[in-house]
Amino acid sequence: MVEHDGGMESGRVRQLWHLLEPLHAVLYYAPEVFEEAAALGYGTEERWPSYFPYRAAPLGPVGARSVASAFYSFSPRMVAEHIDPAWKIASPEAVLRARERGVDRAYRAIFGDRTGSPELAEVAALVRRAAEAANTAGRPLAAANAALDWPGAPHLQLWHAATILREHRGDGHIAALMVAGLDPVESLVSFAAIGAASVERFESRGWSAGEWESARDRLIARGLVDADGTATEAGRELRRTVEERTDQLAAAPWQSLNGEEVDRLVELLGEFWVAVLSSGLLPSETTLGIGKV
User: Fold this and answer.
1) How far is Cα 293 from Cα 287, in angstroms, rounded to an integer?
2) How many of the other CB atoms lie within 10 Å of CB of 112?
3) I want to staple 164 with a disulfide (CB 3.0 to 4.6 A). Which of 91, 131, 158, 185 is the partner?
4) Is pLDDT at 208 greater than 50 in this prediction?
């Protein structure tokens, strides 16, 4: 059975993602989280040695093949480079404890006195309701995070709920890409082709120049991309369909909130969204295409 939006506008679903994604992404950029990773023994010269175990830890001590499948757009070689040694450095349980400590410290640094505010507690309660309503069937990363115990503090509940919902959306996005016939590298080439981010930004996913060119050739043969790598109208339409389907698949959890509650959530989230963006921790360009799709 395909989940549908139940009447919620796709634009509203996407707005909620745009507001919550930065609150989740603190995990991958905050210095406090890097410090926790370094204490476990992970390299912190770049973000990838901690990114892969932090994000994959809810799955347990799985191997690179399973992680590459769940993460989809990363080169399997890049995944193996970081996952093969990951659980020899620290167990998934230790990584989960470290990421919670890191997010706790990062949120306190970013939000200050607002960390314990009634407004944050209200936001956390609303987002948690949506996260607990999420159907995680066929969504491995959402299911793995949803199976974890809930933290006690409201600010950590907010982060945990945002993580469940962003992985729920991400799992659905992979389904939409597969229905569109876009393999992992083709999904990146087609996204770059519509200007979602620069080719250089997408190179961070570990694919070789040859693999990128082969994927572009396949998309050219399908009439989705021109020879210069720019999307054709058919390519743009396919990506629009992917994003619309992603929104539809991400909408169901929000049906647990009524319209007034969603409006209130959007109103309250703005303050914390601005605080995260104003921290300067997050990059100005990402591979998610937020604000461009």
Assistant:
1) 11
2) 11
3) 131
4) yes
Decide if 15 is inside a domain: yes
Q: What is the pLDDT of residues 135-191, one digit of tens each?
A: 999 999 999 999 999 999 999 999 999 999 999 999 999 999 999 999 999 999 999
Beta-carbon count within 10 A of 16 CB: 26
**151 exposure class (CB count in 10 Å sphere: 0-12, 13-18, 19+):** middle
Half-sphere exposure of residue 237: CA atoms within 13 angstroms, side-chain side: 5
Q: Is 293 inside a domain boundary?
A: no
Confidence label for 131 from pLDDT (cuts 50, 70 and 90): very high
- Spatial contact of 229 and 180, defined as CB atoms under 8 Å apart: no
| Residue range(s) defining the domain that contains residue 207 | 10-278
The total domain count for the chain is 1
Question: Is there a contact between 250 and 13 (Cβ–Cβ < 8 Å)?
Answer: yes
Q: Among candidates 146, 165, 120, 172, which has minimal Cα distance to 257?
A: 165
Per-residue pLDDT reduced to its tens digit, 101-115: 999 999 999 999 999
Instruction: Annotate 37-91 with DSSP letters as a single string.
Output: HHHHT---SSSHHHHHHHHHGGG-S--HHHHHHHH-SS-HHHHHHHHTTHHHHS-
Please state the rounded mean pLDDT for residues 122-129.
98
User: Is the distance from CB of 20 to CB of 3 less than 8 angstroms?
Assistant: no
Distance CA 44, CA 66 (A): 24
Q: Tell me, yes or no, whether 50 lies in a domain.
A: yes
State if pTM tops 0.85.
Answer: yes
Contacts of 131 (CB under 8 A, 6+ apart): 146, 160, 161, 162, 164, 165, 168, 253
Query: Alpha-carbon distance 148 to 155, whole Å?
Result: 16
